[in-house]
Each structure stands twice: as C-alpha cells, then as structure tokens.
Amino acid sequence: MAIERHGTTQRYSDICAYGNSIYLVETPQTLDANVATQTREVLAGVEKLLEQAGSDKSRLLMVTIYLRDISDAIAVNAVWDRWVPRGTAPARICIEAKLTHHDFLLEVAVIAAR
Amino acid sequence: MAIERHGTTQRYSDICAYGNSIYLVETPQTLDANVATQTREVLAGVEKLLEQAGSDKSRLLMVTIYLRDISDAIAVNAVWDRWVPRGTAPARICIEAKLTHHDFLLEVAVIAAR
Amino acid sequence: MAIERHGTTQRYSDICAYGNSIYLVETPQTLDANVATQTREVLAGVEKLLEQAGSDKSRLLMVTIYLRDISDAIAVNAVWDRWVPRGTAPARICIEAKLTHHDFLLEVAVIAAR
After folding, report:
1. Nearest CB to B91: which of C1, C23, C100?
2. DSSP string, B55-77
C-alpha cells in the first residue's frame, strides 16, 4: 500500500497518509506573533493539511501539543476549545518543550483518521 | 469508518478507537500522592480505558511516559515492570517534561491494538 | 490480529508491528560518542529494526526526535538529511527533553508503514 505525502522536503513531509491513518506536524507561520495568533495559525494549518489528505478536524485521534512555555496552555486551550467540533475531541496531551526554532511558541503533532 | 470515543469533553477524549487502533492519554487522580501511587493510578486507568475499547494491557504498541522529574523513572519502572504482562511490552520512551497540571508527576500517552 | 514484537524485555520491545503499522524507539549504543555518531547509530538501528519487521527507511510515517540539547539539532539534521531516501521524508518533530540515560544525546520514536 502506498504512502501519500504532501509538502515533502529532504527533511520532513507536512503530512503523510497511509491507509486510513494520517500523520502530521504543524508549526506557526508568524514568528513574532503572540501565542493565541500562533495557535490559530497552527490549527488552521492542521485543518488545511487534513483536507489535503481527505479528512477534517472532526476526525482527530491523538494530538500532542508542545509549548515553549507551559503557562501558555491557558491561551492555547481557549483557541483549541473553540476550534474542535463539539463531541469530536481527540486524546490529547500538552507538555512544555524547547523547540528547534526559538520563535515557535508551539508545535502540534497530530494522528487523525481519513 | 466511525471513530469510537469515550470520556469526551470539549477539550479531549479519554480514549479514541479507530479500526483496530486505540489512542489514549491518562493522568493521575490523587494529586498529593507520591510517584509510585500516581503511576499505579495511571496504569490502572490505562487498563480500564483499554477494556472500555475492547482491548487490554497485553496489546500495547507504543507508550510515551512524561515525567515531571526524570529521576522518578526508577520508581515508575518498578511499578511498570510488575504491571506489563510478560512478553507483551510495547515500544516505550520516557522523558522529562513540564506538564499542564503542576501536581501531575507523570502522564502517559498510549497507542494500542484492539 | 496478532502483534509481532522483537527485542522484548519486561520493560519494552525494540519494535512492535501490528497489521500494516510499525512502532519503535531507538537509543544510541556508544555512550561516550558525539551527537553525530550517536545519530548515525540510532538511524542505523532504526533501519535494522524496520527490516526485521519487513519494512525499510523509505516507509516512515511520523518521527519524534528527542534531543538532550536542542542546539544539537543542526548536527542531527546533517546526518538525517543524508539518511532519508529522497522524496520519502515523514512528518517529523524535534524537541529538547531530558532522557532516562544521561549519556544519551538523542532518542528517536518512529511510526512506519509495513
């Protein structure tokens, strides 16, 4: 069975789909934005990537949220809670971690269903 | 194919099952307990959630253990090693990470087979 | 459906395969080596484990790289970029995290397709 990839560079793909499973990592685009804006950007990016792979944000299975500063969790959750379609929230964990790009306030890793 | 969820709030589900795959995150219940007690609680919770989804602790595939203090790994492993059915241990990684709730000494993310 | 495991101890398996999905965690072998050497060792180990499970490094779906020191990302990426077959890179995230063994400069968690 073939792996479907989008946004593939030598280092990473934006998204890989295999059978009924989808794997993606999303990062912010506006490096000097605050955490609410970066979160909105990341979740909009997740949504767009899921659509590219024939899925949508109501089909998340497991999400890992990496925050540069764990105290941003409140602001991230405020955006997240409005973004997730009612009754479809995934298994989710949120941790603090240093990320590769200093201006990223968050990164999100997603496993979703096709 | 439908996603089966349990314990769904606006923010997260306790567990999502899709086809033959199961995804869950478990947290401690007794916030002032020591790490051995919190680990026993978390693993008992994992077991209960797996049973809700028609699986059990002998069918773990990949487990990520997040510890507030990596030096707790010894105590966590002592509980873990007694809990895993012989010959069924999953791929496993254990890292230190700040968690969203200061009183959580660990959180566990699990991928399992139905 | 049975889970196929290799390198199973009481604590972990080196790799678990289930249906068309593969889960593994790999660690360095030479504890006093520099990060480039440890990265080469880890990726060679990933390759060997994937072959044991009937897959190969062109079938990665999602990779999480945990670094003891995030500033090692440059050295890790230099090795990674040469290792990944062109056009097959997975979804990938790289974070800093304290690991259970102080001499590990990195650990890698992999989800791959059979």
Report:
1. C23
2. --GGGEEEEEEEESSGGGHHHHH
Q: C96: domain range?
A: 3-113
Q: How far is CA A6 from the centre of its chain?
A: 15
**B65/B94 Cα distance (integer angstroms):** 5
CATH number at residue A77: 3.30.1330.40
Measured in angstroms, the CA of B78 and the nearest CA of chain A are apart by 24
Structural domains in chain A (count): 1
Contacts of A25 in chain C (CB under 8 A): 62, 91-93
Strands C60-67 vs C91-96: parallel, antiparallel or unpaired: parallel
Q: Sort out which chain B residues have CB atoms less than 8 A from C18's CB and list them.
A: 20-21, 61, 113
Under the banding of pLDDT at 50, 70 and 90, the label for residue A42 is very high
Give me the residues paired with residue A110 across strands.
A24, A63
**What's the pTM value of the predicted model, to 2 decimals?**
0.98
Residue B110: which pLDDT band, with cuts at 50, 70 and 90?
very high
Cα B23 to chain centroid, rounded: 10
A14 in Cβ contact with A7 (< 8 Å): yes
Quick: pLDDT tens for B27-43: 999 999 999 999 999 99
Judged by CB atoms closer than 8 Å, whether chains meet at A25 and C73 is answered as no
